[in-house]
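Appendix B, example 12.
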Amino acid sequence: MVELLDEFQHLRRLSGAPDAERGIDVLIGLLANHGLTARRERCRLWLSDPLDGGLSLPAHGDWRCGAKTRSFSADCPHGVTAELYHDVRSLAFLPDDQQPAWEAAVKGKIVVADQGFEDYVQRLMHAGAAGLIHIWGSEEEALHEETVGPVWGTPVPDDAASYPTLPVISINKRSGGELLALLSQGPLSARVTTRLKQHVAECSLPVVDIGGELDEFVLLSSHYDSWHEGVTDNATGNALCLAMAVHFARHRDALKRGLRIAWWPGHSNARYGGSTWYADQNRFELQQRCAAHINVDSPGCKGAAQVVINASGAENLQFLNHAVSAVTGGPARRITPSGKGGDHSFWGCGIPLHFALREEPELRASLSPGSGGGWWWHTENDSRDKVDDAIQWRDCEIHLHWLGKLLTLSELPFDAPGYLIRLQEDLAQLQRDLDPGFDLALIAHQLTALQAGFRQATPDQRITRQLLGLLHRARYISTDDFHQDKSYHGGAFPGLQLLRHYRREHCRPQTWLMLETQYRRQHDRILSLLLQGVALLNP
């Protein structure tokens, strides 16, 4: 692991860049040194590389501010100049009957806001805003790279119209405070510039297979591309996967299941493009042979004392925590449902288990969602000194325990009854956030029927695996097996999440009609999946 980290710390591994391919040369060479041959697959990805962002105030020529643009922002090298508008409610739900006034307020303006998520950028774009200045919410001076790409992976033709047509930049909290102070004195115009390179490039995707007794495998993955050196995001994950490959290759004779390890490109500047491409190319094999997917992203981070697990819900919690306790002496700080991110591109592939280790500090000082909560996440400062070798080894041992069980146990650690209970809880919470007209009682009834059916049928692992695949499709996606949701469609039952907080009395007729249609289609889609599950248990 140390050898790979020492090599990767000198490489800027943005997908499509020469250093990314050099990194794969290094990785394949290290694998070869241990007798492992990597299959170097190649995928063409649509990439958006942020090059430069700028912000200036024509009326305050001496004022200076650091800024970065976002991947998939509009490319506006000649700049856009417009009056500023501070959207004080950017993080709040906006009732539909207030939408016209909001659209009129932001139209033609450069909006200053406390968020820069993709769905907010979509709203601004459709309202005709001239640009977005996102003020980062925590105190670090560093500027973070990010994306506003709404498309998960490579787009299909219908996706093309979703890409932002307005420039987006981010500034730090101190600069944001200065900007808002000037704006509070009266109308203020600003000039925003962005430079991006949008291109299609062929990227390497190395895969190692270590066979087992059965014709099935566990998929272990990590993205090798990075912003800048990206040592904790994600060279440490690449190194951990390398260590797992070397270890289990030495013990291949003891493996019941095989281990497949993939290193993804396109995580950062193609919005999970590599893992999505892999799902598209290998869907039927994954459906038939893949028993679990473990994603490894940013282990070994300095100060990341606490272990957190993101899990699909189908995993036996004792199994997940046993590995953590065996290494650290205690359970994970918490086990939470998998969020929308982290190369989870396989919900429609029928894989029953999906989980990932995450880390965080004892106390958070940054809003950074990665690098163990470190302020250096997605910045030029994500360097070798941000790695804690002891924590890297801790995280390596936890994965060693997990994989040791998954690759050798006769039966996989499923917990379908527990998952059904958690789905009931998710559904009840969702119902509380919906208009009374959007009734989820039939879905709740079918979940109860599945619980009873599972107790009576005591199905074998083959049937349980198929059932979990159906439940994942209901819980995590709103589309079919062959498409990806937009990058901001997350949460439990994401197709119904879109209805949250809307109330009929505050909606325009055309909006309510669309919401009713969304409800009916998603309600019946989920119901159909659950009925298929009941049929599985009662053939």
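The longest strand covers residues 189-210. The mean pLDDT is 97.
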